[in-house]
Each structure stands twice: as structure tokens, then as C-alpha cells.
């Protein structure tokens, strides 16, 4: 029976034959940019070589890549570029819900022709994503290099736009002659929320330039080298972890009415006797900044900081309610685990030919396989809870537009989970780009009941995730567009949290809550919201640290009232705060943005300590909170 329920890719030798075999680098699986894994054939991708691209560095592949993009038909569909140098003479563009996927970061190169006539006048991008100002949803660029060549001084490497979800990951952008306008341009229109992870920018006048519009971006593991004017020109709320800059010019400039930079763990080297590493004229939170070679490490408005080390600096006032240490929580930071990919011949693809695929998926998990693969062109219909357990170490998917696992919501009521991660052990489990859907009814999409570390990367999960008392392993999430209700202690590191798909419904009796942290540690780098919900409820000694948030309030003042206060009578809430903390600790740096006049809340935080309640209220409107500290001593 097992053979009917499972399929395995046929044996491959590791070469590309007529475009049938995809070999890609999965950044979720390995830190080595030259390591590749194989995708099985018929996985739902589009290969540029099937459209005439040569990748030999001599043939003009512009039209072939454009044709491959035009041939995509489904949201999240991948356009794949095997290793090679793809010479282009004009822009490569698309709008939304597409993935430009290279085989490996250093060996898949899109190179602009030297002295290209199309780049003689005006600023122009080699790769550009844009769709209707603020609807460039779901754009991913992974595992490749963009080279703007020589003699193209007005070239932009990538003019990137994405909203709600999307990422640039394991990408190098370089100008061969160190000229060029901007390496990564996020300033064309409203950008984000979106993720920029594992990026190297070499050359250009400006390494990264961000928009001044109302939005937010999350950045991690960024390297900037040899810029001519500034490494990073920032104008919006940016959450940044691990920035390396090798520059004679300023590493970071931060200015504008909506600019807030939250920068953690930076090494800014080079400099000269006339330059300052960080020039700030806006909102600022810094921690663990190391500089060398500069005249000074920081110019914060008119104040000069000459020391080479900044342990922690808050640009504005530190807001507190109860007596609290005047600093952030400074939680321990862990990087997501790396898993070495195994040969594609060992992967298992669940069979999808039955009317109900529950058994086939469970059989695949229990087959002893370490790697499961879900193609983009297959959808699995689920009627009962799936248990991820046993030997499985990685689940890799090409996202299906309606969920790789499509659960019937009628079968998942009363918080019955669609997927449960079970079992004990120390071997991490990585899940990359898997979609779990119960649309249109949100529910408990994923439940953790394991001692294993779990890494969720670019996954789409309807509803929320939860845990049981057995969930003692570390949790890592990159790009989270769902909520988390953890009634048991959990340690989580989340990079790019977007809970815009809000649970707010004034007709229902309970106050909506995005994050419930009951006794655990939550480290959140970058968080964007849009609804009258409690953003983080922290209790029972839990610790929640928010490093950069963009809370975009849309509703009138009456919507931030607890009209159903009977739902939490023991707390006596009358308004809905961002943060509700009960005998626990929190620190947060964020921006509150009033979409319109009067469309922002007044109550920022409610703290309860041993039955004493205090509230942090600020004048409703757009405001910057450089640090709110509610730390129990």
C-alpha cells in the first residue's frame, strides 16, 4: 500500500538534462552559498533555459527571461535560473506573486551589458518589481547575483517592491566598476512589510535606499561595501539585525518624518577622519554597535558620540509605568538552524491522486524519509490532523496559491489543529515555503508538541499557531503572517511579523489578540499591524522584546474601546492597548502611524503587577516610541 501512496524522484546524476532537473540553493537549508540541492521535475517551476536563455555570458538573455516570467500562470510560481551568467541589456520586470530563484548565489548571475545604451540617461533598474503602488504582494528573489556591469553609472541593481509577504534572500548586488546609482532601491513607492535577509551590496553611490512612505522593512545579515556616498540611506521604520559596513563614507544616514532605525549588532569599519559612521536626524534605537576608522561613531542630531562602542542608545525618552531598568530586555539571540540537504533521490513526494490525501501525506511522513517535498502544481486535500514526526528533518515546498495542504474547515473546528509537530529529539526540523490553508475560516493551522527546534521559513499558515506543554524546543520563524497563541512556555525568534490579516470583529465577545506569550521568551524583529487588537499579551513571567514595529492604525477612536469588556472582567479593560503585560516583562521600539486624523489609539500599554494596574497613554496620532520598558526587576 505504501508504494501507491508515495512517490520518489527517479535517480539523477546531478546534471541538467533538457531542463528537466532543477538544482537550487535553499537558504533555509544551508549557510553555504555555493551548495545546491535538487528539485524534482514537474515541480511547478518555469526554467528560463526552456525559453532560450543560454547563461553563457555572451548571448543576450533579456527576452528569454522576460518570456519565462510571462509564461507563469499561478501566484508564487518560481522562475528558475540554473548556474550561469545571463547577459541582459534591459530591465527584467514583474508585478506580484512571483519568485526569481537562482541555483546558487555566487554562480547564478544576471549581468547588465557593459556600457548599455538603455542605461545612459536616468536611473533604471536591472531587476524591478512593481504593481499598483501598494499591491506588489508576494515577490521573492533568492539565491543569485545581480551585476550592473561597467560603464552604467545610472543603473540600479534591484528596484524592489513587495507587500505583506516577500523577501530578498541570499542575494549579492554588485557594480563591477563600483559605479551605479543604488544597489537595492526600496524608495520607488510604499514598500513592505517585507524581508531583506543575507544581502551583500558592493559599489554604487548608495547601497540601500528606503522609502519615506508609511511602511516598514525587516533586515538581517546585511553587508555593504565600497559605496560612494552612503552605505544606507534610510527614511522609514527599519528593523535591522547584523549590519556589516566596509566604507569610507557614512555607513547609515537616517532622516525623515517617518524614519526610525532600530539597529542591533553592527560592525561599521573603514571610515575616514571626516566621516561619521551613523548620521541620525530622526528616531533611533541602537544596541551593540562597533565602529572603527571613523571620526565618530554617531551624530545623533547635534550630539557627537566619539566612542567606538555603543552598548545601547535610545534617541528619545524611555517610557515606563512601574519602576523598571532603563533599558531593553536584550534577550539572547539565536540564528536559525542550518540543515545539510540530502540527495533528491531520497526525497519523498506524497501521492495526490486520492480524493482525500490525508492518508497519503501521513504515510509519507511515517515512511522513514528525512525530506518531504510538496510541488507547486499539486494540492493535497486534508480531512484530519497531520502529524509531523519520526525521521523527518525538512519539508520543502514550492508554494501553491491556495495552500499545499488544503484543509476542509468544517473538519477543523474548536481549535482542532490541521498539522501537529510531534516527537522528541535535538535534530531541528525546517519547513520552507509550505502553505497550510483552511480558508475562508481561520483556525489552528499548526500546533507545536515537540522538544525539537523548529524553523518555519516563508510559510503561509491560515489562522494561528499554538503549542502544548510538550513544546519545549526553540522556535524560529522568518516571515510570519499569522498569529501565535502559546498557552505554554515557548522560546521564539521571529523575524518579520505581519499580523495585518487581523482577527478584529466587534460582533464577537473576545478582544482579538495577535501574540499570546504565557511564560516564554519572544524576540520579534520587525512587526507590522493594522487593526484594533491587543498586539502582545505577555503573562506569567514571560518576556517579549519588540525590535521595531510599524503599527498602522486605520480606525476611529471608538474602535479602540473594549465594547465587550465582559470578555476579560478580571482585567477591567476599557480600551484596547498594543501591549498587555501581567506579572511579566516587555520592551518595545515602534512607530504608531495614524492613517487619518483621529484614526489612532491613545492607550499604548497596560501593565498589571500583583493586582496593581497602570496604563501608558499618549496623544493619539503618529508618534515614535524609541523605547518602552516594562521590565520586572
In short:
The protein is built from 3 helices and 53 strands.
What's the arrangement of secondary structure elements?
Blueprint: H1 2-5, E1 6-7, E2 22-24, E3 37-39, E4 46-47, E5 56-60, H2 62-70, E6 77-81, E7 84-88, E8 92-94, E9 98-102, E10 108-112, E11 124-129, E12 137-147, E13 155-159, E14 163-174, E15 182-186, E16 195-202, E17 206-210, E18 217-225, E19 230-234, E20 237-247, E21 252-254, E22 260-270, E23 276-280, E24 283-292, E25 296-300, E26 303-305, E27 309-314, E28 318-319, E29 349-350, H3 358-365, E30 371-374, E31 380-382, E32 386-388, E33 394-397, E34 405-407, E35 419-421, E36 429-432, E37 435-437, E38 444-448, E39 454-457, E40 460-461, E41 464-467, E42 475-480, E43 483-486, E44 491-498, E45 513-518, E46 521-529, E47 534-539, E48 543-553, E49 579-582, E50 585-594, E51 603-609, E52 612-617, E53 623-630
Parallel strand pairs: 4-6, 5-7, 6-9, 7-10, 8-11, 9-12, 10-12, 11-13, 12-14, 13-15, 14-16, 15-17, 16-18, 17-19, 18-20, 19-21, 20-22, 21-23, 22-24, 23-25, 28-53, 30-33, 31-34, 32-35, 33-36, 34-37, 35-38, 36-39, 37-40, 38-41, 39-42, 41-43, 42-44, 43-45, 44-46, 45-47, 46-48, 47-49, 48-50, 49-51
Antiparallel strand pairs: 1-29, 2-3, 24-27, 25-26, 50-53, 51-52
What would your notes on this structure say?
This protein has 633 residues and is mostly beta strands. It is 3% helix and 46% strand. It is built from three helices and 53 strands. Strands 4, 5, 6, 7, 9, 10, 12, 14, 16, 18, 20, 22, 24 and 27 form a 14-stranded mixed sheet that branches. Strand 25 and strand 26 (303-305) form a beta hairpin. It is globular. The termini are far apart.
Amino acid at each position: 500500500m505504501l508504494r501507491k501512496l508515495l512517490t520518489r524522484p527517479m535517480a539523477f546524476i546531478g546534471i541538467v538534462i533538457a531542463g528537466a532537473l532543477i538544482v537550487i540553493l535553499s537558504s533555509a537549508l544551508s549557510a553555504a552559498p555555493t551548495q545546491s540541492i535538487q528539485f524534482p521535475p514537474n515541480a511547478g517551476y518555469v526554467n528560463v533555459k526552456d525559453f532560450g536563455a543560454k547563461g553563457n555570458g555572451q548571448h543576450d538573455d533579456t527576452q528569454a527571461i522576460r518570456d519565462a516570467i510571462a509564461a507563469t500562470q499561478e501566484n508564487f510560481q518560481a522562475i528558475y535560473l540554473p548556474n550561469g551568467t545571463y547577459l541582459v541589456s534591459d530591465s527584467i520586470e514583474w508585478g506580484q506573486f512571483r519568485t526569481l530563484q537562482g541555483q546558487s548565489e555566487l554562480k547564478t548571475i544576471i549581468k547588465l551589458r557593459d556600457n548599455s545604451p538603455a542605461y545612459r540617461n536616468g536611473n533604471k533598474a536591472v531587476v524591478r518589481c512593481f504593481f499598483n503602488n501598494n499591491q506588489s504582494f508576494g515577490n521573492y528573489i533568492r539565491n543569485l547575483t545581480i551585476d550592473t556591469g561597467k560603464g552604467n553609472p545610472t543603473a540600479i541593481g534591484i528596484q524592489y517592491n513587495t507587500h505583506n509577504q516577500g523577501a530578498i534572500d541570499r542575494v549579492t548586488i554588485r557594480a563591477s566598476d563600483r559605479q551605479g546609482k543604488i544597489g537595492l532601491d526600496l524608495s520607488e513607492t510604499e514598500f513592505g512589510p517585507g524581508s531583506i535577509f543575507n544581502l551583500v551590496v558592493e559599489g554604487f553611490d548608495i547601497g540601500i535606499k528606503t522609502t519615506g512612505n508609511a511602511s516598514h522593512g525587516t533586515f538581517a545579515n546585511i553587508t555593504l561595501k565600497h559605496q560612494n556616498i552612503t552605505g544606507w540611506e534610510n527614511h522609514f521604520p527599519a528593523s535591522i539585525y547584523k549590519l556589516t559596513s566596509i566604507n569610507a563614507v557614512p555607513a547609515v544616514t537616517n532622516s525623515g518624518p517617518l524614519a526610525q532605525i532600530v539597529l542591533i549588532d553592527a560592525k561599521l569599519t573603514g571610515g575616514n577622519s571626516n566621516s561619521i559612521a551613523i548620521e541620525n536626524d530622526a528616531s533611533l534605537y541602537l544596541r551593540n554597535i562597533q565602529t572603527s576608522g571613523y571620526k565618530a561613531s554617531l551624530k545623533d542630531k547635534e550630539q557627537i558620540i566619539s566612542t567606538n562602542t555603543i552598548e545601547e542608545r535610545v534617541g528619545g525618552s524611555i517610557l515606563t509605568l512601574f519602576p523598571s531598568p532603563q533599558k531593553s530586555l536584550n534577550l539572547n539571540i539565536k540564528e536559525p538552524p542550518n540543515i545539510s540537504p540530502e540527495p533528491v533521490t531520497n526525497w519523498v513526494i506524497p501521492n495526490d491522486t486520492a480524493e482525500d490525501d490525508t492518508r497519503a501525506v501521513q504515510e509519507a511522513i511515517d515512511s522513514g524519509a528525512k525530506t518531504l517535498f510538496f510541488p507547486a502544481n499539486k494540492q493535497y486535500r486534508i480531512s484530519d490532523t497531520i502529524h509531523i514526526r519520526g525521521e523527518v528533518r525538512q519539508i520543502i515546498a514550492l508554494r501553491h496559491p491556495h495552500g499545499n495542504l488544503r484543509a476542509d474547515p468544517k473538519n477543523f473546528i474548536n481549535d482542532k489543529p490541521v498539522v501537529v509537530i510531534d516527537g522528541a529529539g535535538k535534530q531541528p526540523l525546517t519547513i520552507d515555503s509550505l502553505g497550510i490553508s483552511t480558508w475562508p475560516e481561520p483556525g489552528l493551522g499548526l500546533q507545536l508538541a515537540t522538544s525539537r527546534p523548529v524553523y518555519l521559513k516563508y510559510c503561509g499558515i491560515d489562522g494561528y499557531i499554538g503549542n502544548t506543554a510538550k513544546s519545549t524546543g526553540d522556535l524560529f520563524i522568518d516571515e510570519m503572517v499569522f498569529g501565535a497563541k502559546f498557552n505554554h512556555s515557548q522560546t521564539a525568534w521571529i523575524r518579520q511579523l505581519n499580523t495585518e490579516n487581523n482577527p478584529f470583529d466587534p460582533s464577537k465577545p473576545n478582544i482579538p489578540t495577535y501574540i499570546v506569550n504565557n511564560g516564554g521568551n519572544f524576540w520579534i524583529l520587525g512587526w507590522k499591524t493594522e487593526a484594533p487588537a491587543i498586539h502582545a499579551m505577555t503573562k506569567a513571567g514571560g518576556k517579549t522584546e519588540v525590535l521595531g514595529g510599524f503599527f498602522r492604525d486605520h480606525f476611529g477612536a471608538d474602535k479602540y474601546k473594549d465594547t465587550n469588556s465582559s470578555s476579560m472582567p478580571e482585567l477591567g479593560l476599557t480600551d484596547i492597548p498594543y501591549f498587555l503585560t501581567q506579572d511579566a516583562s516587555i520592551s518595545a521600539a515602534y512607530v504608531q502611524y495614524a492613517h487619518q486624523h483621529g484614526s489612532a489609539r491613545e492607550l499604548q500599554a497596560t501593565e498589571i503587577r500583583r493586582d496593581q494596574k497602570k496604563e501608558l497613554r499618549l496623544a493619539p496620532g503618529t508618534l515614535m516610541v524609541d523605547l518602552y520598558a516594562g521590565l520586572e526587576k
